[in-house]
Write a structure and sequence with these properties.
Distance between the termini of chain A: 44 Å
Largest sheet of chain A: 7 strands, mixed
Strand content of chain A: 25-35%
Number of helices of chain A: 7
CATH topology of the largest domain in chain A: Rossmann fold
Strand order of the largest sheet of chain A: 11-10-9-8-12-13-16
Helix content of chain B: 25-40%
Order of helices and strands of chain B: EHEEHEEEHHEEEHEHHHEEHHHH
Radius of gyration of chain B: 22 Å
Radius of gyration of chain A: 19 Å
Order of helices and strands of chain A: EEEEEEHEHEHEHEEEHEEEHEH
CATH architecture of the largest domain in chain A: 3-Layer(aba) Sandwich
Helix content of chain A: 10-25%
Number of domains of chain B: 2
Shape of chain A: globular
Oligomer: heterodimer
Number of strands of chain B: 12
Number of helices of chain B: 12
Structural class of chain B: alpha+beta
Number of strands of chain A: 16
Distance between the termini of chain B: 62 Å
């Protein structure tokens, strides 16, 4: 058996250095990364990367920073499995491997000039933070911006300091809710769908972007349709356990679509007929 | 190659051909592995080559996409050095039936499509193929006519047809011509040989009949409106989720990527291995959600990936009619039976529509 190095291989990894880490909650940790050698890293909000701890394994993770700064980028990782738990033990100065970015992100060119209704459930805020911060960095390119955030409980809320800033901005309509409150919680209690009916929006010019756990989509989309937002103006972002990122391994397939190439962001119109999608 | 498209090889010269060729290249051919079981293995003479064989246990995809394949190696030494690599071996595959030629053509499409898979393509460049015609059906599991894979249609360098005491050989590529020249055992084909070949093809046209009650061009249509069919519920009750059908399929290529650390704890490799959409964890995500929890849904996915999705994308079936999935299934799930049940259900629905 002969062996050759192949520069053009899609399985080449870039080495990235961890610049900073921040424990966001008990289970989620934020990592700021930069490609070794100062190489710029450009991407679109909603795209994902394959990230690996050498010797443990590789997983797909969405980018959570806005692509405004091309020198460093951030990922928010929840410790759930072997790889994520291993990555959680890493600190500033450690190295990891990355491939990507991959996939079709949020349709920014379509969103520009329109009103946005951003609905985040749980860890769904991770990819949406990339979009929200991009929108805020380019605020004049967009119409009204609604942000609805749902969390299990106050202690599960991610990016709390940023949420406060969004809440205080006069150019953002921000609301949050928790499924279960704690004693010092003064905000809204209830599942995220309870926030939607009260939002004042013009359905023809509103684009909804929904990211959250699978169970959330059906109920949120039902509420959005009840607000007369057209199907093609509702976008969702799907989670699958991609292994290759290049539309081959089959792990992310929803019927004929490869989430890693055709998604992970889809319009509701594209996927509403696909059993196994949600 | 000026005009010489066909040459002949007398059967007593087959051994000379295989042993001569094996001195130039590593030669792989079908070898008997006990009753009705065959495997592609290295040979150095014609002695072990099974000229009459039914589809091997594993298709030739194992040479294009090995069960385990290193994709990347890394070494940690202060920093990290990681390099993507490809493992390959120049080979000549001898005795590839038309169903398996079709399988290789399918894989070629998948891995040549952007983004390209250079590991596969590097190996593909170094594998030469000698086909071998099936004069009759191998057994009742074969359904090569329905997918138009019973007659040769490219995908080989040389193509052998057994015509009694000799083979007639179609030279399809320059490499094929080089092989015939280098091994010095071939004779130019005469007119009578060409007649023999034409006669065989004519007999084959009578012998090989489309194995379904509908024309092949309608096959992908039976997958429209049958997503919720009771056929899948039936398979749900029978399938054992072992993944045999996908392992032996010449067009199944799904894989897992796994990382391994060496005992020095400083270096290691990333490799891919065959994986199967039929096993439970395949479509499971981190939170525990499984998007194809039921075995019936997974079987349905397999059938759609053979007869519907590739037709939308590549305008061809990703079934080669080899029959391996049916032959190997422990629960006796048979491809033709599934297709016939879908056809029956679909036509019953159509009748109801007319009432």
């Amino acid at each position: 058996m002969e062996r050759l190095g192949i520069k053009e291989s899609r399985y080449n990894v870039k080495i990235a250095k961890i610049l900073r880490t921040r424990q966001l909650t008990e289970h989620e940790k934020l990592f700021e990364l930069a490609i070794e050698g100062g190489e710029a890293f450009d991407y679109e909000p909603g795209q994902f990367i394959m990230i690996n701890d050498f010797g443990v394994g590789e997983i797909p993770i969405s980018l959570t920073s806005a692509p405004t700064n091309r020198i460093s980028f951030e990922v928010c990782i929840r410790a759930v499995g072997k790889v994520t738990n291993a990555i959680h033990t890493l600190e500033a100065g450690d190295f990891i491997g990355i491939r990507g970015p991959y996939g079709r992100g949020f349709p920014i060119r379509i969103l520009e000039g329109n009103d946005l209704m951003i609905v985040a459930g749980g860890l769904g805020i991770a990819p949406l933070r990339s979009l929200i911060n991009y929108v805020l960095d380019n605020r004049r390119d967009f119409g009204k911006v609604h942000i609805l955030l749902g969390s299990k409980s106050p202690k599960d809320m991610l990016f709390v300091d940023e949420l406060d800033r969004w809440n205080q901005r006069m150019d953002v309509y921000y609301q949050s809710t928790v499924d279960q409150a704690e004693i010092d919680w003064t905000g809204h209690v209830g599942v995220i769908t309870t926030l939607i009916p009260g939002v004042d929006l013009e359905p023809e010019r509103t684009f909804a972007i929904v990211v959250g756990p699978p169970i959330m989509y059906k109920f949120v989309i039902r509420e959005l349709l009840a607000k007369n937002i057209p199907e093609r103006q509702i976008f969702v972002d799907f989670e699958r356990h991609m292994k290759c990122g290049i539309g081959k391994c089959g792990r992310c397939q929803i019927q004929n679509l490869y989430v890693c190439q055709d998604g992970p962001v889809f319009s509701y119109e594209e996927i509403k007929h696909l059993t196994e999608a949600m | 190659m000026k005009g010489i498209q066909y040459v002949t090889l007398s059967k007593e010269n087959l051994d000379g051909f295989i042993s001569g060729l094996s001195k130039l290249h590593k030669v792989i051919a079908p070898v008997s592995k006990g009753y009705n079981n065959f495997a592609f293995e290295e040979v150095d003479s014609a002695k072990n080559v099974a000229i009459q064989y039914i589809p091997t246990i594993l298709p030739p995809k194992k040479f294009y996409m090995p069960q385990y394949e290193t994709l990347m190696e890394y070494r940690i030494n202060g920093g990290v050095r990681a390099e993507a690599i490809v493992e390959f071996e120049p080979l000549v595959l001898f005795g590839i039936h038309t169903c398996d030629l079709a399988g290789i053509q399918c894989l070629n499409m998948v891995f040549s499509e952007q983004p390209k898979d250079y590991n596969y393509l590097t190996r593909k460049m170094r594998i030469n193929i000698i086909g071998l015609e099936c004069n009759t059906y191998c057994d009742e599991f074969a359904s090569c006519t329905m997918v138009n894979a019973n007659m040769p249609s490219g995908g080989y360098d040389l193509f052998f047809t057994d015509l009694g005491d000799y083979f007639i050989v179609h030279i399809n590529t320059h490499t094929g011509e080089e092989i015939t020249t280098a091994t010095k055992v071939f004779e130019p084909a005469e007119k009578s040989h060409m007649h023999d070949l034409a006669d065989l093809r004519e007999q084959k046209r009578r012998r090989f009949r489309i194995e379904l009650p509908i024309a092949p061009r309608f096959v992908s249509e039976i997958f429209e409106g049958t997503f919720e069919s009771k056929v899948w519920k039936d398979l749900d009750a029978r399938c054992l989720a072992c993944g045999n059908c996908t392992a032996v399929c010449p067009t199944c290529y799904c894989f897992d990527i796994v990382e391994d650390v060496n005992l020095d704890l400083r270096s290691g490799r990333r490799y891919r291995m065959w994986y199967s959409c039929q096993v439970e964890p395949f479509a499971t995500v981190a939170g525990g959600e499984n998007f194809r929890k039921e075995r019936g849904a997974r079987q349905r996915h397999r059938y759609y990936r053979k007869f519907k999705y590739p037709v939308m994308k590549f305008s061809r079936f990703f079934c080669t009619g080899c029959g391996r999935c049916s032959r190997t299934c422990m629960a006796d799930i048979r491809l033709l039976e599934t297709l016939n049940s879908l056809i029956k259900e679909k036509t019953t629905k159509l009748w109801r529509g007319w009432e």
